[in-house]
Prior knowledge:
Elements: H1 6-33, E1 40-49, E2 56-61, H2 71-79, E3 87-90, H3 101-108, E4 116-118, H4 122-125, H5 152-161, E5 165-166, E6 170-176, E7 179-185, E8 210-215, H6 221-229, E9 234-237, E10 266-272, E11 275-281, E12 300-308
Helix pairs in contact: 2-3
Amino acid sequence: MTAPSLSSTLRTAAWVAGGTAGAGAAALAYASLIERNLFGVREETVAVLPPGSKPLRVLHLSDIHFVPNQNIKVRWLQSLAELEPDLVVNTGDNLSHLEAVPPLLEALKPLLRFPGVYVPGSNDYYGPRAKNPLTYFTGPSKITKEPPALPFGELFGAFEDAGWAGLTNRRDSMELGGVRFDFSGVDDPHLDRDVYPGFPDAGSGAGRPSLRVGVAHAPYQRVLNYFTDGGAELILAGHTHGGQVCIPFYGALVSNCDLPTRLAKGLALWEHNGRKVPMNVSAGIGTSRFAPVRFACRPEAVLLTLTPRS
C-alpha cells in the first residue's frame, strides 16, 4: 500500500479543520440567533397540596435578564397571562440593562394582575460586565469589581404596587383557593446576602390547609437545607440557566453554584436529614447581554400544577 503524500495529508487535515470550524460557527449562530429566542413553557404536576384541595397553577419565572428592544421576549412574556395562573413566583435576575425597567414592566403588565411573590437576584442589583464567557466554566462566578448599579428599587416598587409580595429575607402568607401558602424567601445566596427567616407561624390559622414554599434565586445547598429542615413542601429557584450551554443527551456542564449539575434544571427531590422536598429549578428565560447564547437548553417559564397529596 502506498503511503499518502505529505500534500495529501495536509489537504485532508485542512478539510477536517475547515469542517470542524464550519460546524462550530453554525452551532454558535444557532445558539446566539435562534435557540435563545425559542421561548417555551415547561409544564409539571406536583402533588403537594393538602388532601381535598382543588388544583392550583403556579407560574415560575426566572432570569429574564431584560434588555430594551427584546421585542420577541416582550410578546412572549405578555402571552403568559393566557395561562391564567393562580400565582406568579419570580425568582430574580430580571434586569440586564440600566434602561430595562420600563419596557420590562410593560412586558409583565398582564401578569401583574395575578397574585405574586418575588426574590432578587444579583442581576437585579448589578449590571453584568463584559468578560470572557469561558470563565463561566471555571466555577461559580463572583462579583470582584464595582459593578454598575441597576434601578432595582423602581422595579420592586412596581411589583409591590401591583400586590406582589417581596420575600427578601422575609416570610409571608397568602390564601389561594382555600389553602394558606406560607412562604420563606431569601436575598440572593450568590452574593451571600441570604438570611433564612424561617416560615410563618401557624398562629390563628392552625388547623387550616397550608403549604410551605421556599423561594430563592440561587439554589445553593445551604439554602435548600434551611428550607428543607424548616418544613418546606416545595422549593423554587433559578440562577443556573440550566447550564445555558449544554451537551445534547448529557446536560449541563456547570450550575454556577454548588448544586449538582444533574439538578441544574427541572423538577427533582431535594433530600436533607431524611426529608425529601420537590424542588423546581428553572432554566431561565434570558442570558447575560454579554453572553447571549443558549445551546441544548431552551429558555423557559414553568407552569406547575399543584395537586392534592394522596
